[in-house]
Amino acid sequence: VTPSDQERHLGGKIHPVAGTGLLAFPWTTTTKPYGSALVELARARPDVIALGADLTRQTETDLIRDELPGQFVTVGMAEQNLMGIASGLARTGRCVFVHTFGVFATRRPFEQVAMQVAYPGLDVKIVGFMPGLSSPGGPSHQAVDDVALMRVLPNMTVVDVADAIETSQAVALLAAREGPCYLRLKRGEVPVLFDRSHRLAIPTAQWLLDGGEVAVLASGMLVATAVLAAQVLGDAGLRVSVVNVPTLKPIDAAAVLEAAARSAALVTAENHSVIGGLGSAVAEVLAEAGSGTPLRRIGIRDAYAEASSASWLFRRYGLDVDTVIATAWSAAGRTGAPPTSADVPVDTGQYAPV
Amino acid sequence: LTGDRPAVLRGAVRPAPPEIAGPGPLPPTRNLEALAATGLAIRRHAVEMVAIAGMGYLGQATSSAELFSVLYRTVLRHGIDRFVLSPGHYAIAHYAAAVEAGLLDERALATYGADGGWLESIATEKTPLVSATCGALGQGLSVGTGLALADARAGEDRRTFVFASDGEMQEGQTWEAAMFAAHHRLRRLTAIVDCNGSQVDGPIATVTTIEPLVDKWRSFGWDVHEVDGHDALAILGALEAGDASDRPSALLARTTMLHGLPSMGATTDAHFVTLGPADVRRARADTAKPALAAAAASPRGPGARR
Prior knowledge:
By secondary structure, chain A is an alpha/beta fold. Helices cover about 35% and strands about 20% of the residues of chain A. Helix content of chain B is about 35%, strand content about 15%. Chains A and B meet through α4 and α6 of A and α4 and α5 of B.
């Protein structure tokens, strides 16, 4: 897809940056991009070992379990022990990938991650599935604070990717990056926002859409949301930039400040608490640099949610396209009712952000 | 691997930096007199280390002196076997025993607890001559399990010894690790538990009992050896028998806080001991080399605080 194709698809009102590989909406989905990439990595690197804690299929590690059983160990429901074992394996020089849901990878074994993984700076890659409100399982299963918990730990790299292409590439990138990492992954059907020319880089933020009055800095599942919001806003005459920020720590401060310098206002969008995640990281950069660019943060506003569907929760907690639209509209100083995404057509099988 | 990060082990344990390294490991001994002398020396060193600040983890060193003596002088193959010090508070005993094993320069002990020094009072990622350690209790057995799992999968001839304390058995993670190690039959993994019956709030039996410990470990699938933790011969026998088992082994060593310091009296309230000048004098007399141990000290107990 060339930028000109892209512009045509997107209605001509948004301005994709050349070379990002951003595909036109509507997007497709795929399954197990992570599990496949992990098998590929482990085949090439015998020092890679995968650990799980009773969520093997759910974390796509049934693939490595079945194909490379010598490089997979399930620990059972014992996440504190899981992190200790990962530490022991990593101390012998192995590159250890640890898998469970985001809540169980961060909240329950926080001290074990801090003392036995982050502090020694070991090659342990913690992969937490079901970010934020993508889980219908209620507060026990909704990782709304995992980025904050991992971001506060010295040595820890924190990554929240936007789609299946980035997921695949993140596996090799994290394996090549020495030291502890936390990778946040959507479970189940994963959108494909980019073609294969896309290149994820850590810790680089990437401009997807440029030239806007307002810049939306988005991470993870909210990247698709921000792009779709930009399309609707473009049709309504408000040009919006979208910056994909896959690495929450270390934050790409130069990209944040560039966005602040080139925009009248910034909006952050994350499937996480506004405390401690992308919104906080951006605010810290802006404040320390003395930037006066106004900032609005989209995310979960200091709340525990319910056990309900993701689409209901994303609307209720303001993680949806229309909230991004309304926030950017207001941040740009537009008056009157903002446009809505209600008219965007989506077919079955296509991925549409809420 | 670059080997730049000290946490990644190139050998069995993290090496001692040259400025505090000892002359090299002494040949292993089964001589009970030598082991007893080592136990006494560990106590002597510990008294001097605690005397620096007038307070510290003396009770841990004295309850575990025979365990460290047998482990470092006889059973642990230096350079081959791994050692995890789960309760970082026992660093004092580890340093003293490492000196007696020839691994650490005795002069370094004078820097115990010194700001910015190598010999921190609670072990850290800097601590020499361990494979891993924890200040936060209850984590060591899991890390040792990971090390033993790595060695088992690689077919390496290494034992992994995890030194633990009985108070740590209150942490649920201990039992997560015990379950996993038995399930995977990690037979080269040995837990050495200093059962001194003490925790910060007082005797374990009065806080939340952990007994029956032997039954607990056995029911988790471990090869269990309960011994008098001040009997070097019994410790040696148990550690050797543990390696012959097809399961992970646990040495439950029944010990006494401040054992070998008769002038201090028997107490389980010795997690963190205050040692005034008079206490130091009496403790020195208690731990002097036999030929010098003429002067007996009065049996007044130390103040204890944490």
